[in-house]
Design brief:
Strand order of the largest sheet: 3-2-1-4-7
CATH superfamily: Nucleic acid-binding proteins
Shape: globular
Oligomer: single chain
Distance between the termini: 25 Å
Order of helices and strands: HEEEHEEEEEE
CATH class: Mainly Beta
Helix content: under 10%
Structural class: mainly beta
CATH topology: OB fold (Dihydrolipoamide Acetyltransferase, E2P)
């Protein structure tokens, strides 16, 4: 288990745009250093946002249509020539596989996390 990180303020948290998104497209990403997908997510913005996500323990079919929790305002990051625009949140299980975080019930696309 990881130690706790230094204390943050509510203002630190409030600066993050964390919201519910719906996976609408998953593409292979063979150029990534670690096994990854290119994942298109509808977060209620004017367009689909894309992420490089190390969630290959899921099939693309299992991901498409799923609701996920995303950080939308980290800014773009170039990963092996691909622009990743958001972070899909997850946690590792006991086997070290990334488990994607999502709501336990239906939630509207773009709904903010607080």
């Amino acid at each position: 288990m990881s130690p706790l990180k230094p204390q943050a303020t509510y203002d630190d948290f409030a600066r993050l745009d964390i919201r519910i998104g719906k996976v609408v497209e998953v593409q292979p990403f063979p150029r990534a250093r670690n096994p990854s997908y290119k994942v298109g997510v509808d977060v209620g913005a004017e367009r689909i946002m894309w992420s490089s996500a190390q969630i290959t323990n899921y099939t693309p079919a299992a991901l498409v249509g799923s609701l996920v929790v995303c950080v939308c305002n980290f800014g773009p990051k170039n990963i092996a020539g691909f622009t990743s625009e958001l972070l899909i949140l997850g946690a590792k299980d006991a086997a070290g596989q990334v488990i994607v975080l999502g709501p336990r019930s239906e939630v509207a696309i773009g709904e903010p996390i607080f």
